[in-house]
Amino acid sequence: MHYETIIAEKKGRVGLITLNRPKALNAINRQLTQEVLDAATAFETDPDIGCIVITGSEKAFAAGADIKEMQDRSFIDMYGADWFADWERLPRLRKPTIAAVAGFALGGGCELAMMCDFILAADTARFGQPEIKLGVMPGMGGSQRLTRLIGRAKAMEMCLTGRMMDAAEAERAGLVSRVVPAAELLADAMTTAETIASMSLPAAMMVKEAVNRADEVDLAEGLRFERRLFHSTFALEDQKEGMAAFVEKRPAVFKNR
Ligand code: HXC
């Protein structure tokens, strides 16, 4: 796969997407959007891939949507094109996705990270929704996902002031799953992704579906949904293998079916 604004690589069972517009701090323009979605879709349909990692550079995961590309557009340009709607494809991926964030994750960058299933942060990571400073507001999910992830008070303050949050605060707030030294970020993200990719893929996909369901339905409905998915794992060969491996005191080898 050859792209201009990203690098997409298969590393074992992990699909790695590296945002690669260094001169613009990985600002998200239309080309980068299409390339990320294209690469992610290719990994999604590749039976050899079990987990997808999205990362940026040491300095920036992504410093937001591309301001220069947007600045002269009119309301009808944005509304007519339903600007940013294409990004809805990313959280709809069924395979697990990890954002590995170092440096700036601002505006659309923070929103892209939040579209992934979880965020691993380097200690250099800085998160923010600074759109208000540009006279606009979040448009790729910031006001919605940030509020669900860190709660109303902090999300409201972040979106109204545009201030940045460092990695330690992001971990305390529940925005990121873990903070690791910057030098170890990619290796840690790849090891984490390989661990996930070594599990039963259908089981991992069901976990993702169930956890995501928690955002959408009440507890009783969510618990019922989870239980039915749990029951269905007993139709998998991987359930037989996983439980047999435990009983026989050996590592499980999943066949993903
Ligand atoms: C286009 C960007 C950009 C962006 C940085 N660059 N962010 N270009 N869109 N979002 C470009 C700069 O113009 C500059 O190019 C180069 O990247 C390096 O950036 P500097 O500002 O020189 O770097 P630095 O001084 O280290 O500051 C880093 C920064 C700052 C704090 C991250 O770049 C910044 O504040 N960026 C904008 C952050 C932001 O507002 N993001 C939200 C965007 S709106 P040149 O050519 O000058 O060297 C959004 C959602 C949109 O994401 C919602 C609806 C509109």
From TrEMBL:
<protein>
    <submittedName>
        <fullName>Enoyl-CoA hydratase</fullName>
        <ecNumber>4.2.1.17</ecNumber>
    </submittedName>
</protein>
<dbReference type="InterPro" id="IPR029045">
    <property type="entry name" value="ClpP/crotonase-like_dom_sf"/>
</dbReference>
<dbReference type="InterPro" id="IPR018376">
    <property type="entry name" value="Enoyl-CoA_hyd/isom_CS"/>
</dbReference>
<dbReference type="InterPro" id="IPR014748">
    <property type="entry name" value="Enoyl-CoA_hydra_C"/>
</dbReference>
<comment type="similarity">
    <text>Belongs to the enoyl-CoA hydratase/isomerase family.</text>
</comment>
<dbReference type="GO" id="GO:0004300">
    <property type="term" value="F:enoyl-CoA hydratase activity"/>
</dbReference>
<dbReference type="Pfam" id="PF00378">
    <property type="entry name" value="ECH_1"/>
</dbReference>
<keyword id="KW-0456">Lyase</keyword>
<dbReference type="InterPro" id="IPR001753">
    <property type="entry name" value="Enoyl-CoA_hydra/iso"/>
</dbReference>
